Amino acid sequence: MKADITLRHANEKDADFLWGLHSLVLKPYIAQTWGWDEDFQYRYFKEHFNPARNQIIRYMGSDVGVLSVEETAHGYVLSNIEILPQYQGLGIGTALIRDLLEKASARGLPVSLRVLKINPACQFYLRLGFSVISETETHYWMRVEGQPRQFLPQRWETEHCFLDAADERQLEAFALIFDENREILGLKDNGVSAQNHALQTLRHRVLPPGGVGWRQQVYLVRDLESRDTVGMLAVYFGYPTPETMFIGSLYLRPMFQGHGIGHEIVRELEQRARQDSPEARLERSADMRYRGQGFELTVPGAAADR
Questions:
Q1: Phi and psi angles of residue 49, each rounded to the nearest 5 degrees, phi first
Q2: What is residue 243's predicted lDDT score, i.e. its pLDDT?
Q3: Contact at 8 Å (CB) between 207 and 236?
Q4: Closest Cα partner for 90 from 60, 130, 131, 61?
Q5: What is the C-alpha separation between 231 and 214, in angstroms, rounded?
Q6: For the chain, what is the radius of gyration of the CA atoms?
Q7: pLDDT score of 120
Q8: Which of 37, 80, 206, 272 is most exposed, with the fewest beta carbons within 10 Å of its own?
Q9: Structural domains of the chain in order of their starting residue, each with its CATH number
Q10: Cα–Cα distance measured from residue 303 to residue 288, given in angstroms and rounded to the nearest whole number
C-alpha cells in the first residue's frame, strides 16, 4: 500500500465525520433507489454506528474516508469503503482493496461485497477483478474467489499406500468402500445407497457446514504393492477456521482396518504440515488436533482407522 495512505481505528469522536461522509458519498444513490429521508437515515446511522467495525482512511495526514472489512470463517467481506469526493481518483481505494485482495489471496480466501446497482463503483470493482455472483432488485453481490492453499499434490504416498485425487471415474471404487462401511456411515438407517453417497462425495457435496466444493480434495487410497483399493480420504481446506485443513472423511475397507493405515495417513499429513510450517507444534487431544503457524489440522475423533 502507498506510504501516504494509512489507517487508524475509528472512535466515538468520528461519528460526525462518518455521518457527513456517508451523506456526501452515498446520498445520491440511496435517494435514487429509495428516496432520502434525512431523519430516518440519521437515526439508522446512529443506531448502527460501531467504531470497532471501522477504520479511518488517512491520506497525507488527513482523514479522507472509512474502510470496514469483516473477516468470517469463509473469507473477507468488504462491508464498506467511502472516500471524500475530492480525494477520489487518486488511487486510494484501489490501493486499499488491492491490499485486502493480496492478504486474502495469501490465505486462499475470497473477498465479497455488496453494492447498489446504480453506484458507478460497480465498474470500479469489476476492474479490480470482482465478479457478480448474485443480485437483488437493488444490489449486486460481487466476489473475488479465493483458492485454497495447495497443501497436497494430486498424488502422494505414505509408507504402504498411495493416494490419487479422485473424480467420478472412481465411482465404483468409492461405492465399494462405502458399501463395506454402511453401518459406520449410517446408510442402512437413512436409506441412502452406497452408490449415491459415493457420487455425492465425488461431486463435492458432502461438505462441512457452510463449505464450498472447490475447497475440498477427495482421494482414493490404494496399496503401494498390490494396487488394491484400500479406502478414501476427503480433505477440506478452511474449516472450522480459514487456516484449517480438516479431514472430513477417512474410511478404510474392513480388510485393511486395524493395521495402522489410517494413522499412517494422518502422520504423513502431519509431516507435510511441518514441512509447510517449520515452526509448527503438535498438540494431540481426543480429536487429534494439529496446530501450526498459518494452519491447523483437525481429525474428528475415532475417524483415523475407519
A1: -70, 120
A2: 64
A3: yes
A4: 60
A5: 22
A6: 25
A7: 96
A8: 37
A9: 5-144 (3.40.630.30), 155-298 (3.40.630.30)
A10: 10
All residue ranges of the chain with pLDDT < 50 are: 278-296, 299-306
Report CA dihedral (91, 96, 99, 104) to the nearest 10 degrees: -140
| 8 Å CB contact between 160 and 224 | yes
Distance CA 103, CA 191 (A): 45
**Is 183 in contact with 192 (CB distance < 8 Å)?**
no
Give CA–CA dist 137/51, Å, rounded: 30
| Tens-place pLDDT, residues 111-168 | 999 999 999 999 999 999 999 999 999 999 999 987 766 668 999 999 999 999 999 9
- The share of the chain scoring above pLDDT 70, in percent, equals 86
Q: What are phi and psi of 21, to 5 degrees?
A: -60, -50
- Please check whether residue 258 is in contact with residue 230, taking contact to mean a CB–CB distance below 8 angstroms: no
pLDDT for 1 equals 63
What lies within 8 Å, CB to CB, of 65 at 6+ separation is 21, 56, 57, 59, 81, 82, 83, 84, 87, 92, 93
First-to-final CA distance of the chain: 49
